[in-house]
Design goal:
This protein is 36% helix and 8% strand. By secondary structure, it is an alpha/beta fold. It has a domain of 198 residues: Glycoside hydrolase/deacetylase (TIM Barrel, Alpha-Beta Barrel). α2 packs antiparallel against α7 and α3 packs parallel to α10.
């Protein structure tokens, strides 16, 4: 009897030991699984492929820096806060183009011509440029080549390859007729948008039958995708203002300027189908855009626009900028430079914009839109 009792005790103890071992192994497996999950979440930055990711973009700026250029001190009143970037929506991959015949080489897209060097500075300061006649904006999508590559085998004539049919990108609004000499044309421009107040700004412009050019920040584009669509639908001209709006970051080197503008350009194209080359650098080109900087943005195909009248709407919050702007126009010092007004996409500007538009119309001014057929104006060059 005693042997049978001890046998049962041994069996129970053995069973408890087996259960304990199994429990320990299951716990270890759970811990290892949690470690693997943490490692997956903490993958290195280089595994992130989205070029507009804030951390990766900052890393690219540092890598692109070849020579650090110290940025001059800014007017504290002018350095406005920029909205925090929202999480970017995943881009929809474009449908793959139809493949050409296997025996024929693929057509190469035409490359965009590099903008020639700007004309010499005028005696007046800031320097002005002779504006070219305005032309309709060119189709922004790259045009497929019409001719195939020449055959490499000797004695054979070049073989032509049928061009692939692509839907053209939407056109930017443009003035078909250039302003007449001596005409009083105003170009309204708005920086730092889009914002939560942009739709009100559109309504104000529509109320007076006027359009404007919007130089927008890349993070704000991603934060207000519906507003971007409204601007496009309303016929406003869409331009680029970079990413960081931080002089110490964007002006580190010529390449960092190009990098920020390219990031903004790509985001706008994904959202609207429009590829714009119109840019305005933060705080204006002077004194940051030295000749090597200008050469870099020109080689990248961008067209840099400054302003000739700063309304100071960023300084005056109660509409004082209206009378200042009218006074500046009455004493406009340039003969050939276009009248480009700098304003900002903000509530205090929108509140008094209607008053400004009424005064401009009473003084005989008409309104135009910047476009890629015009010669850009910049203060630095």
């Amino acid at each position: 009897m005693r042997q049978g009792k001890w046998f049962k005790v041994c069996v129970v103890m053995l069973a408890l030991i087996v259960v304990s071992v199994i429990g320990i192994r299951m716990k270890n497996s759970s811990v290892q699984a949690e470690k693997r999950l943490v490692q997956e979440q903490n993958k290195p930055l280089e595994n992130k492929t989205d070029a507009t990711h804030p951390d990766l973009f900052e890393n690219n700026l540092v890598k692109a820096e070849k020579s650090r250029t110290p940025a001059p001190a800014l007017d504290e009143g002018y350095a406005e806060a920029v909205s925090e970037p929202a999480k970017e929506k995943p881009a929809v991959a474009p449908a793959p183009p139809k493949a050409a015949e296997a025996s024929k080489p693929a057509a190469e897209p035409k490359t965009q011509a590099v903008q020639p060097a700007q004309e010499k500075q005028m005696a007046a300061v800031p320097k002005a440029h002779q504006p070219q006649k305005e032309e309709p904006a060119l189709d922004q999508a790259q045009k497929p080549a019409q001719k195939g590559e020449q055959a490499q085998s000797g004695g054979q004539k070049p073989a032509s390859v049928p061009s692939q049919v692509k839907e053209p990108a939407p056109r930017q609004p443009a003035n078909v007729q250039p302003p007449k000499a001596g005409s009083k044309v105003i170009y309204l421009t708005f920086d730092d948008g889009p914002s939560r107040d942009t739709l009100k700004l559109i309504d104000t412009l529509n109320a007076y039958g006027v359009k404007g050019t919007f130089f927008m920040l890349e993070p704000n584009m991603r934060s207000y995708p519906g507003t971007i669509s409204a601007l496009k639908k309303n016929g406003e001209v869409l331009g680029l203002h970079g990413v960081t709006h931080d002089a110490k970051k964007i002006y580190r080197s010529p390449q960092t300027v190009v990098t920020e503008m390219t990031a903004a350009q790509n985001t706008l194209r994904k959202m609207t189908g429009i590829k714009t080359n119109l840019i305005r650098t933060p705080y204006g080109s002077s004194p940051y855009m030295k000749p090597d900087y200008m050469k870099a943005v020109n080689n990248a195909g961008f067209k840099l626009w400054d302003w000739t009248i700063d309304t100071n709407d960023w300084r005056y919050k109660n509409g004082e900028f209206v009378s200042k702007t009218i006074k500046d126009l009455e004493h406009y010092p340039y003969r050939t430079a276009p009248r480009i007004l700098l304003m900002h996409d903000k509530q205090t500007t929108i509140a008094h914009l209607g008053e400004l538009l009424i005064c401009l119309k009473k003084n005989g001014y008409s309104f135009g839109l910047l476009n890629e057929g015009m010669k850009p104006y910049s203060q630095e060059h």
